[in-house]
Amino acid sequence: MKNAINWFEIPVKNFNNAKLFYETILGTEMQVMEAMGMISAFFPAEMETGGIGGCIIAGQGYEPSANGTIIYLNGGDDLNIPLSKVEQAGGKVLLPKTAIGHNGFLAFFSDTEGNKIGFHSRD
Q1: pTM, 2 dp
Q2: What is the pLDDT, as a whole number, of residue 48?
Protein backbone atom coordinates (compact mmCIF):
# COMPACT_ATOMS: atom_id res chain seq x y z
CA MET A 1 0.00 0.00 0.00
CA LYS A 2 1.51 3.30 -1.11
CA ASN A 3 -0.78 5.63 0.90
CA ALA A 4 -3.18 4.92 3.76
CA ILE A 5 -5.53 7.54 2.33
CA ASN A 6 -6.67 7.66 -1.29
CA TRP A 7 -9.76 9.91 -1.12
CA PHE A 8 -11.44 12.40 1.22
CA GLU A 9 -14.73 14.31 1.28
CA ILE A 10 -15.40 17.57 3.11
CA PRO A 11 -19.13 17.94 3.81
CA VAL A 12 -20.78 21.28 3.00
CA LYS A 13 -24.30 22.71 3.07
CA ASN A 14 -23.84 25.93 1.05
CA PHE A 15 -22.09 24.35 -1.92
CA ASN A 16 -21.44 27.47 -4.01
CA ASN A 17 -20.10 29.44 -1.05
CA ALA A 18 -17.82 26.57 0.02
CA LYS A 19 -16.56 26.06 -3.55
CA LEU A 20 -15.67 29.74 -3.86
CA PHE A 21 -13.93 29.62 -0.46
CA TYR A 22 -11.65 26.71 -1.39
CA GLU A 23 -10.97 28.04 -4.89
CA THR A 24 -9.96 31.36 -3.33
CA ILE A 25 -7.64 30.04 -0.63
CA LEU A 26 -6.01 27.45 -2.89
CA GLY A 27 -5.87 29.60 -6.02
CA THR A 28 -7.40 26.89 -8.20
CA GLU A 29 -10.58 26.03 -10.05
CA MET A 30 -12.55 23.04 -8.81
CA GLN A 31 -14.44 20.83 -11.25
CA VAL A 32 -18.10 20.14 -10.39
CA MET A 33 -19.94 16.85 -10.75
CA GLU A 34 -23.49 15.86 -9.80
CA ALA A 35 -24.30 12.20 -9.17
CA MET A 36 -26.63 10.10 -6.97
CA GLY A 37 -28.42 13.21 -5.66
CA MET A 38 -25.19 14.85 -4.49
CA ILE A 39 -22.99 17.61 -5.85
CA SER A 40 -19.20 17.61 -5.55
CA ALA A 41 -16.30 19.89 -6.50
CA PHE A 42 -12.90 18.25 -6.82
CA PHE A 43 -9.58 19.43 -5.44
CA PRO A 44 -6.66 19.18 -7.88
CA ALA A 45 -4.91 15.80 -7.71
CA GLU A 46 -2.65 13.77 -9.95
CA MET A 47 -4.61 10.55 -9.55
CA GLU A 48 -2.84 8.83 -12.47
CA THR A 49 0.48 8.99 -10.62
CA GLY A 50 -0.80 7.92 -7.20
CA GLY A 51 -1.89 11.33 -5.93
CA ILE A 52 -4.53 11.61 -3.25
CA GLY A 53 -7.77 13.23 -4.30
CA GLY A 54 -10.77 14.66 -2.56
CA CYS A 55 -13.72 16.97 -2.85
CA ILE A 56 -16.26 19.10 -1.11
CA ILE A 57 -19.65 17.43 -1.20
CA ALA A 58 -23.24 18.39 -0.48
CA GLY A 59 -26.03 15.87 -0.12
CA GLN A 60 -28.14 13.91 2.29
CA GLY A 61 -26.09 12.54 5.18
CA TYR A 62 -23.22 15.00 4.78
CA GLU A 63 -22.93 17.33 7.79
CA PRO A 64 -20.13 19.88 8.28
CA SER A 65 -18.41 19.58 11.66
CA ALA A 66 -15.57 21.06 13.68
CA ASN A 67 -15.28 17.73 15.54
CA GLY A 68 -13.87 14.44 14.38
CA THR A 69 -11.37 13.67 11.65
CA ILE A 70 -9.12 16.50 10.48
CA ILE A 71 -8.00 16.69 6.88
CA TYR A 72 -4.71 18.45 6.13
CA LEU A 73 -4.58 20.20 2.78
CA ASN A 74 -1.28 20.81 1.03
CA GLY A 75 -0.06 24.25 2.11
CA GLY A 76 2.42 24.40 -0.77
CA ASP A 77 5.91 25.75 -0.27
CA ASP A 78 4.72 28.09 2.51
CA LEU A 79 1.33 27.52 4.12
CA ASN A 80 1.23 31.19 5.13
CA ILE A 81 0.21 31.94 1.53
CA PRO A 82 -3.12 30.04 1.48
CA LEU A 83 -3.64 30.69 5.22
CA SER A 84 -3.48 34.45 4.58
CA LYS A 85 -6.53 34.10 2.30
CA VAL A 86 -8.74 32.21 4.78
CA GLU A 87 -10.31 35.15 6.63
CA GLN A 88 -10.69 37.26 3.49
CA ALA A 89 -12.64 34.35 1.97
CA GLY A 90 -14.97 34.04 4.99
CA GLY A 91 -13.20 31.44 7.14
CA LYS A 92 -11.34 31.79 10.43
CA VAL A 93 -7.74 30.96 11.34
CA LEU A 94 -7.82 28.73 14.42
CA LEU A 95 -4.06 28.09 14.76
CA PRO A 96 -1.44 30.11 12.85
CA LYS A 97 1.54 28.48 11.14
CA THR A 98 3.18 26.33 13.81
CA ALA A 99 6.46 24.38 13.59
CA ILE A 100 6.22 20.63 14.17
CA GLY A 101 9.92 19.81 14.16
CA HIS A 102 11.41 17.89 11.24
CA ASN A 103 7.90 17.32 9.85
CA GLY A 104 7.51 20.96 8.83
CA PHE A 105 4.59 23.21 9.73
CA LEU A 106 0.85 23.02 10.27
CA ALA A 107 -2.04 25.42 10.76
CA PHE A 108 -5.77 25.01 11.42
CA PHE A 109 -8.69 26.97 10.05
CA SER A 110 -12.47 26.83 10.03
CA ASP A 111 -14.02 26.97 6.56
CA THR A 112 -17.25 28.80 5.70
CA GLU A 113 -19.22 25.69 6.66
CA GLY A 114 -17.68 25.28 10.12
CA ASN A 115 -15.38 22.36 9.24
CA LYS A 116 -12.01 22.32 11.04
CA ILE A 117 -9.33 21.81 8.37
CA GLY A 118 -5.54 21.78 8.54
CA PHE A 119 -2.78 22.96 6.26
CA HIS A 120 0.61 21.25 6.18
CA SER A 121 3.87 22.30 4.53
CA ARG A 122 7.49 21.20 4.81
CA ASP A 123 8.76 24.81 4.95
Answers
A1: 0.94
A2: 87
